[in-house]
Amino acid sequence: MCGNNMSAPLPAIVPAARKATAAVIFLHGLGDTGHGWAEAFAGIRIPHVKYICPHAPTMPVSLNMRMSMPSWFDIYGLSPDADEDEAGIKRASENIKALIDQEVKNGIPSHRIILGGFSQASANSANKDMHVLQCHGDADPLVPFLFGSQTAEKMKSLINPANITFKSYRGLPHSACPEEMVDVKRFIEKQLPPISDE
């Protein structure tokens, strides 16, 4: 399963229009699948970039009365002090690393792979020089805008603050919009330019 042992279907993939020399691995949010995001990336496709949109396994989610739904790990609550499913986060991280390793085996260098996601955030000292585009709608009823701006500030303490771009979108709820997708495309084009022999 392309290195994905999350008991989920194979990822939705938007192949590069020519030889893939870069990849974007994009994680969907709670209850979603990779299909819609693959469609969104098909609409902003960059010819040398392969887009991989994996599907989270279906599992009971405590936040939603243990209802089974696609989720990368269990979510106990949305407050900043809520407990976290550390084992589930570690398992999801290992499976995502397997997807990255598979793309490296396919010939794409790790520095030409972007990991992104909807309603996701993570950083550690090993990634202190990475570039981050964080987008957030100011009308998000699920993840308050304050959480998004606090996450951006926390990220600045973990990685090079000059590499963090926080963009807000007026009136946008917990979803994406065309303006945001254009910003995502520009970010990808800047981070993953064509290689000179393409």
Describe this structure in words.
The chain is an alpha/beta fold. It folds into two domains: 9-123, Alpha/Beta hydrolase fold, catalytic domain (Rossmann fold); 125-192, no CATH class. The chain contains four helices and eight strands, in the order ββαβββαββαβα. The strands form three sheets. Strands 1-3-2-6 form a four-stranded mixed sheet, with helices on both faces. The two termini are 29 Å apart. Mean pLDDT is 91; it is low at 1-6.
Number of DSSP helical runs: 4
How far apart the termini lie comes to 29 Å
**Total beta strand runs:** 8
What is the name of the CATH class of the largest domain?
A: Alpha Beta
Strand percentage lies at 15-25%
Please trace the helix and strand order, writing H or E for each element. EEHEEEHEEHEH
Q: What topology, given as strand order, has the largest sheet?
A: 1-3-2-6
Main sheet makeup: 4 strands, mixed
- Proportion in helices: 25-40%
Could you give me the name of the CATH homologous superfamily of the largest domain? Alpha/Beta hydrolase fold, catalytic domain
Radius of gyration: 16 Å
Keywords for this structure?
four-stranded mixed sheet, two-stranded antiparallel sheet, 20% strand, 29% helix, 198 residues
